[in-house]
Amino acid sequence: MLVLGRKPGEYVVIDNKIKVKVVKSDEGHLRLAIDAPREIPIVRGEVYEKQMNK
Question: Which Pfam families does the UniProt record give (predicted)?
Fold first, then answer.
């Protein structure tokens, strides 16, 4: 696992296809904007874990 520090407005690009940008950071809360092709599913962690436990 890669761990990066990013400030609001900064982003990372994964495989030249997925852009993950920090859009807000307040009081320990973080908002991310994810730009990816439609064929790549994006699932929140708690939903993913629930699906894996079925």
Answer: CsrA
Kindly state the percentage of the chain with pLDDT values over 70. 100
Residue pair 19/11 in contact (Cβ under 8 Å)? The answer is yes
In one-letter notation, the amino acid at residue 4 is L
- CA distances, 23 to each of 9, 32, 34, 49 (Å): 6, 6, 10, 25
- Which stretches of the chain are DSSP H helices? 45-52
Is residue 33 within 8 A of residue 23, CB to CB? The reply is yes
The token duo for 34 is: 């994810």
**pLDDT band at residue 24, thresholds of 50, 70 and 90?**
confident
